[in-house]
Amino acid sequence: ILSMTCHVLVLVLCLSAAEDFDWTKNDRGSFYYGTFPAGFSWGAGSSAYQTEGAWDKDGKGLSIWDVFSHRKGKILQNDTGDSSCQGYYKIKEDISLMKELKLDHYRFSISWPRIMPTGIKSDHVNEKGIKYYDELIDNLLENKITPIATLYHWDLPQVLQEKYGGWQNISMVNYFNEFANLCFERFGNRVKYWITLNNPWSVAVEGYETGEHAPGLKLRGTGAYRAAHHMIKAHAKVWHTYDTKWRGKQKGLVGISLSGDWGEPVDISNQKDIEAAERYVQFYIGWFATPIFHGDYPQVMKDFIGRKSAQQGLGTSRLPTFSSQEKSYVKGTCDFLGIGHFTTRYITQKNYQSGHGSSSYFTDRDLAELVDPRWPDPGSEWLYSVPWGFRRLLNFVKAQYRNPMIYVTENGVSEKIMCTELCDDWRIQYYKDYTNEMLKAIKDGVNVRGYTAWSLLDKFEWDEGYSERFGLYYVDFRNKNTPRYPKASVQYYKRIISSNGFPNQREVENWKRKATETCSSSNQLLAAEEQRSTAANILRLIHDPLTSHMEMVTEVVVPTVCTLCILLSAVFLMFLLRRHN
Ligand code: NOJ
What are the positions of the active site (predicted)? Predict the structure, then answer.
């Protein structure tokens, strides 16, 4: 009832609100025909643990995700990334998919434990792991695809978690720096775009606050802030390492990839809602971006967490502080800002009392999140399609951080359909509308240089296992060869790329029809293929116990019965002989 009331409230308010709000000059609903600046870079992305598989091959060490996903009950259906898309064995095949799309760049991540099995350089460097990334990078370059490498997409070496408590411990700063330095040394002659950390918000909140992600800690009210503090310092250190040791020679750029949902005030005439929405965004992207661009946490985080900590009777704030040296060390450590963006929320003010032990990142913000029930919600529960929120977020970043160079490092949508579906018209719609809002943002003056569709392939979606498919390419995980099939969105994205935008209405209107022309027939073929492989699997399952049963009969039962027969006959014979005598 409460959520219904909220939805109705949202409906009423959003109908009456926002129309003359500054950023809606080009109107939320209207489509903008035009093209992107020359040289705009189009790409797609992936991450190591989500796609590589080969979790224990060629000397790779364990990551916290290997361990976490093997613990029962942590991942939907107890799925793991053990083999995933088998990307480790499919460099050439996957690059041919990128060629098909005519991508300018490919964003991937380097698995720390694959090249440093314990996470500690002095323990061991795994040359076989280095070789894999060498090959990937070389093949990309041979195909004129720019590699964008992420150094940390959540797969911390397990040893560092066990020995030190992972990101709870300040020692991660040096260990991460050594790992990054090795990557610069070995790959930096070819990789010119580096992303230190991917989405530290998720690592902090889901890894150390709610425990839904590895390492699964529930240190409410403190864990996320500590982890974030160390990650910000680790990012800054790696940027300085590159700046002082490698930049002169290698001439690359080092950035960070931050995720940020947009928060829109429920009632734009209500000051409290406006402030709550601002807080939502500041506690999200601002938590990391403000120290990196301005040297310290957003004032509103310091105020709210500080006040609530005092109300709890704590002597110091649960939000750690930067010393003045640290502030200047952290400030300005970003050559470009990576943005991962998927969705938007309506925000209203809501007070939470800070009692003993009840504090958390979520209650610190004093707000409630709402959604408009009319927003399309095709896949992941949290992912509503709200394209205009993207433009607002990009404008916010421009205004807050002095118009930095931006690469969109993740944007896309999933589907939750369990049966095969290559005709993903909702994804076509999502990409069309979100990239169009990005184009409007560029026209607003936001300095966006590239866009990365998330993701190239269906893959392991963290605690949701394989149930949420974000790929442009469908991956058949039931087949042990994990074949890839293009969804209709591949055809559509390809057209956006080849036209570098949306040239004119007549042309663009045909794209969707053309993109979906063949998908239903390929759908049928794929479904039949999947049925065949499922049937083969079932047969194998039936066959296996049958064979072992037969083996048991011949190897154990038959000899035993024969021996018994012989013994019985002997006893019977002796009995007969005795009677005869
Ligand atoms: C952000 C994460 O960085 C990425 O790994 C994940 O697939 C997407 N969110 C979608 O949930």
Answer: 410
